[in-house]
Specification:
Blueprint: H1 3-13, H2 16-21, E1 25-26, H3 28-32, E2 37-41, H4 45-50, E3 61-65, H5 71-74, E4 83-87, H6 92-103, E5 109-112, H7 115-122, H8 125-136
Parallel strand pairs: 1-5, 2-3, 2-4, 4-5
Length: 137
């Protein structure tokens, strides 16, 4: 199928019933509690180097930084068979990455909402302690 046809189909799927269901977004708390998922940070390398999001104590989450502008060249690094949560502070680049991944056949993709504030809330000490205990399990 031509890329334009894939994007056309993607846009058609995003009618009110889909948007109203919120199936394209996920809160950080909910995402970090899922099993065997990929946290895709699409911020620039410089942003990632300034504020790294590694999630080392979340054994259920693989954390990757692939800046949105590098995604076409690095898409093969992403597993197509796992849920992917896409993060950037304002959800602009997350949305671009979301559409791009869907156009490439990735179907279990969500935008992690809330930016730094929501992610920081999801990574407070008590929640990290729970993740550490779950990992030690």
């Amino acid at each position: 199928m031509r890329r334009e046809a894939i994007v056309d189909e993607l846009l058609r799927k995003h009618a009110l019933d889909y948007l109203g269901s919120g199936n394209y977004i996920v809160d950080p708390d909910i995402f970090l509690d899922q099993e065997d998922v990929v946290f895709l940070d699409v911020r620039t390398r410089e942003e990632s180097e300034s504020i790294a999001i590694q999630l080392k104590h979340h054994s259920n989450v693989s954390s990757m930084n692939i800046p949105v502008h590098e995604l076409p060249e690095r898409i093969d690094e992403l597993p197509i068979d796992k849920a992917i949560g896409i993060f950037c502070p304002a959800n602009v680049r997350s949305t671009l990455a979301y559409v791009y991944l869907f156009s490439k056949g990735y179907t279990d993709v969500r935008i992690i909402v809330g930016g730094y504030i929501a992610l920081t809330e999801a990574l407070k000490p008590g929640k990290i302690l729970n993740a550490v205990r779950r990992s030690a399990g």
